[in-house]
Amino acid sequence: MTMAAHDSSARWRTFFTEAKEAEIVLLLSKQSENAVLDITFHELQAFDPEFAEDVLKDPRKIINNGRTTLTEICRERGEDLDCLIRVGELPKDSRRDLRDMGSRDIEMLRSAEVICTKISEIKPRIHRAVFQCENCGHTIEMIQENERELKEPLKCPDETGCGESAGRSGGTRFNLVMNVSRMVNNQWIEVQEVPENVPSGAQPSRGQVLVEGDLVNKHLPGQRVVINVIPVVHSEVKRNKKTPMFDIIYHLVSSEHESTPFTEIKISDEDRQAIIDVGARHDLLQLMQRSIAPSVYATGVVHFVKRSLALQLFGGVSRVNKDATRSRGDIHILLMGDPGVAKSQLLNYMSKLSPRGMFATGGGVSGAGLTAAAVRDEFGGGGRFALEAGILPLSDRGMAAIDEFDKISEEDRRTMHPAMEQQRLDVSKGGVKATLNTRCAVLAAANPKDGRFTKRGANESVMHSFNETGLPPPLASRFDIIWMLRDEVRVDDDERIARHILEVRTQGVSETKLDEAMEFDLREAEEGDIFDEGVDGSEHLTIEFLRKYIAYAKRNVNPDLSDDAKALILEYYTNERQSFGRDQQQYTETEVIPITPRALEALIRLTEAHARMHLREVASADDAKMALAIFRHWREEAGIEDESELASGVSVSQRNAGNTVRSIIRDLCSDKGVAELTEILNRSETRGVNEYQVEEVLSRMLQGGELFEISHERYSFAR
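User: That's the sequence. What structure does it adopt?
Assistant: Structure tokens below.
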């Protein structure tokens, strides 16, 4: 140990008086709730480089000496404060991945970038314990450094006390004096390494962090933070015996919340220039489209699907309004399709492509699920609950790709609405109340319950297919775009798709040869490259460069709408609002609204995303035209006449038929006390409702308990 560690108290005193005088005066004025002094590592390094290095090597002793010295300085100036020191902004050479923390890092000061996954309740822990001798009344003060064991005096001092020992016959006892002792709040946090640092196929490493004092309740599940910690070890206990194996627990010294998104993506000056050059290309959208899962052949509607996915990667601009309300910028997309149409491949690729992308399957998510859950506290909470984050909070500021969306749990179905629209999740479970951020784009894929979607009728919308997934209809309204991918027989397309698959298969490298290093990994050749070539000879961007491009655009470009773009969007919106009804509204019993402000916001997000893709600070009319083209196409494909169908799952014709049949049954029951099926059918036919529609309405009313069958084909309203 160097001299700096031995005389750390003197060095601290010099540092405090010379470099931190103003902060100490602020502490003494008690303007801050907690007596905490924040120190950056470069301040220590500028003061004394040797001393700063010793803080990294022996942090527990030196920082405790600093706390004691600072407390003494405050007492000398007339204030009895229990001071804390927070050392942050550690150098890069002290940064470790969580999976690399080992024996060489024990009792040293280290930093790691992590995601908080679980937060326990606050528990007070005694920090400075004062004991009183029963024999003579002498008090002894003891600092409690171990969070798992209370350290008690063994003997009363001979010099100032009676000199008796505790525990032996005729000795003394020591009682804890609570009103004099000092307690500090403690909290356990479970952390997980960030997804981009996890090797392919590996499980993310986890760790338990002990938080103390002013740092409690400063972290939420799903947050990304840089933790500055002291790794300590505790022996494992099996069958009431200690083992030679040790668990690592991280004592939190300080933490730094991320202020700038996507800082984990390093962009050099050369990368920045290449990004600007690519952003200036006139065929940028087509290039981006080709770069989305190049191995998936695009035909028919898949062209538009890939185009919308490219816009989703960039997203619109999230804004906070003057009235404190928030406007969502992330774009949500749902892919419904038959088996074998490459939905899972698209989702997998998008999760890898997006900075902070996470992939999950609706049926394979347990525990916290997609949103959040209150689970039994594993930190020794005695049956209490701790809050655990699900996929959406963990994907904050990124993308959540959810396959088999139709298989999500009932709990998640109820909480997905605020998580997707307001992008926040108010959790009140097991006595735990918290608000979690879910500021991420959602890309979901859903399958039909019966294995394959049925063909839609001429007057049926995409909600006919959505209802076949078994998902609640209101969930459909949370998606900006819904695509239907059908596996249909087309001779020309089938041949082109088959040729493409064969080419992709033959150009791939055997996994066995890669594992045995007999062949080089083709993905390694992408490092530093901007462009790659597909099997059809077309040019697309490499994954590495595209991730940098997206991170740069989302970090630096926040476009506003130009007057021309606003005019185009406004014109489309007003025309659509008036398109249905002037000549047809008179034949419907309920008002039809073809488009709502929710769709208008989706248009704005698509326009901003197209401008952000082109690195434009102002979204032009061209951006609005492209957004309108994509939006119009999916709306035409969807066949939605009334926006309310997205929320209810009931089409205009179904709703009108229901109102008509309901009115007929009411009239018949009022006249005759009962409604017979024959009379219902006769009157319905005269009002334009066919037999199939009548049977469908009657079935819904019977299932909902609105109607009951008195006898065969004779009905009455339930009382």
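Residues 438 and 573 are 29 Å apart (CA to CA).
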